[in-house]
Amino acid sequence: MGTPNERQHPSRRAVADALRGQIGDGAKYPPGARLPSYRQLAAQHGVAVNTAMAAVQALADEGLVTIRPSNGSFVRDATERAPTLPARRRDLTVLRDRLSRAKRDVAEAEKAIAVMLEELPPEGKR
Question: Strands, E, within 43-110: which ranges?
Answer without folding.
Answer: 65-68, 72-75
